[in-house]
Amino acid sequence: MDNYLDFLNKLKDRSNFSEVEKESIQMSILDKEENFSLFFLKRMKPLNYWFEILENHTYIDMLKNGRINMFLQPIVDSHRLTIIGYEILVRGYEENGKLIYPNYIFKTTEKTKTINYLDRVCREISIKTAPEFGLSDYMIFINFIPTSIHDPETCLKTTME
């Protein structure tokens, strides 16, 4: 649904939901081409979730449009004083190019319950772009969130692939 943000704005502005109602009332959004199915029920989320999506649209837009870039932090062998690898740090950007700081991103992932999605996107970007920086002779260190790995065999396998 292209205008779901407009709908959420109207729902939030025109309604006076209590905190209990915001947690109790469940909702999901269907795309225009999507038919109702039991899968739809699995996507039901409390109103609070949808209102957090609305409040944090900058973050959601960053994820949706892939405005994430990679920075390299050298890892140095302190005995030889040589670079042995790079930690890959991922940063987001607003549409106008302004940096979105990690503390905002991680707080927002909790509010919007998108930590698993963010973790996967960051791992994919790190792995796909590392060769572009000529890092094939170095180890790369990728941070990930342990709780995002529900099925370690599948997650780690796809990450390695």
Secondary structure layout plus pairing:
Elements: H1 4-14, H2 19-24, E1 26-27, H3 38-42, E2 45-46, H4 47-55, H5 57-64, E3 68-77, E4 82-93, E5 99-100, H6 102-112, H7 115-129, E6 139-142, H8 152-160
Parallel strand pairs: 4-6
Antiparallel strand pairs: 1-2, 3-4, 4-5
Task: Describe, in plain words, how this protein is organized in 3D.
The protein is built from eight helices and six strands. It is α+β, with helices and mostly antiparallel strands. The protein has two domains: 1-55, no CATH class; 67-161, EAL domain (TIM Barrel, Alpha-Beta Barrel). Strands 3, 4, 5 and 6 form a four-stranded mixed sheet that branches. Strands 1-2 form a two-stranded antiparallel sheet. Strand 4 and strand 5 (99-100) form a beta hairpin. The relative contact order is 0.11.
**What general form does the structure show?**
elongated
**Termini gap:** 33 Å
At the first level of CATH, what is the class of the largest domain? Alpha Beta
Number of domains: 2
> Which topology of the largest domain does CATH recognise?
TIM Barrel
Mean pLDDT: 83
Indicate the CATH architecture of the largest domain.
Alpha-Beta Barrel
Order of helices and strands: HHEHEHHEEEHHEH
Write a concise synopsis of the structure shown.
The protein is of the alpha+beta class and about 160 residues long. The protein has helices at about 5-15, 20-25, 40, 45-55, 55-65, 100-110, 115-130, 150-160, and strands at about 25, 45, 70-75, 80-95, 100, 140.
